[in-house]
Amino acid sequence: MMRVLGRVTSINVRKVLWGLGELGLAYERDDWGLPLRDPNVPEFLALNPNGQVPVLLDGDFVLWESNAILNYLADKDGSGHLLPADPQLRARAQQWLGWQSSELGPSWSYAVQAMIRKTPGYDDPARIGDAMTKWTGKMEILEGHLEQGEAFVAGDQFTIADIALGLSVHRWFSMPLERKAFPVVGDYYERLKQRPEGARWMTTQTP
């Protein structure tokens, strides 16, 4: 049985757990990551030298980085359920999966540390405002794309990109600040919450 090392309060761990649930794959999960269990110990660093969660163990195979794990799970399943076989649709899903990691996620960093995690030292109002401006700009890109009328970011099929983006927009709607309205993204968010695994992992307790 596969094992996932990571705490459910991590957005990247929840990506993997949502993917496993969508595919109906059995797994066990071990709590790792602060404040529950420090990953910066030899036992964990032997699996992921970055000291970050999640880590997937599939027999003797070890894999880290949440997007790589989502790709692996989709290919392991082999049904095309979360990643289309068509090369153009597959590439579009990969495009938005990469965008979430390289563009959307970094934009919110300071604001999330300040307003959600309450991390000491992240209390500069100017930097919070700057992060929110950058984050809003990225959300405008997503809104514009979804305005084209497709149900999901890669087309009519739900893919691994929607898992990453669903958790991201959940974080946006959970911020305790006044935010720009994005009605099309809001509809997309509600659509994802209709999925059992979406409802399970997009909770107000874990933004």
Describe the protein.
This protein is of the alpha+beta class. 54% of the residues lie in helices and 8% in strands. Strand 3 and strand 4 (61-64) form a beta hairpin. The longest helix has 22 residues, at 125-146. It folds into two domains: 2-77, Glutaredoxin (3-Layer(aba) Sandwich); 87-201, Glutathione S-transferase Yfyf (Class Pi), Chain A, domain 2. Helix 7 (160-174) crosses helix 8 (183-193). One of its GO terms (molecular function) is transferase activity.
In short:
The chain folds into 2 domains: 2-77, Glutaredoxin (3-Layer(aba) Sandwich); 87-201, Glutathione S-transferase Yfyf (Class Pi), Chain A, domain 2 (Up-down Bundle), CATH 1.20.1050. It is 54% helix and 8% strand.
Give a quick account of the main beta sheet: strands, pairing sense, barrel closure.
4 strands, mixed
In terms of structural class, how would the helical and strand content be classed?
alpha+beta
Following the backbone from N to C, one meets helices and strands in this order, namely: EHEHEEHHHHHHH
Helix content: 40-55%
CATH architecture group name of the largest domain: Up-down Bundle
Estimated radius of gyration: 17 Å
How many strand elements? 4
Query: Mean pLDDT score, rounded?
Result: 95
Q: What is the molecular shape?
A: globular
Quote the beta fraction.
5-15%
CATH topology of the largest domain, which one?
Answer: Glutathione S-transferase Yfyf (Class Pi), Chain A, domain 2
Into how many domains do the coordinates divide? Answer: 2
Strand order of the largest sheet: 2-1-3-4
Q: What is the CATH C level class of the largest domain, in words?
A: Mainly Alpha
For the record, give the distance between the C-alpha atoms at the N and C termini, rounded to a whole number: 28 Å
Give unreliable regions as ranges: none
- Count, helices: 9
Pfam family, one: GST_N
Family: Belongs to the GST superfamily.
Protein name: Glutathione S-transferase
Domain GST N-terminal: 1-81
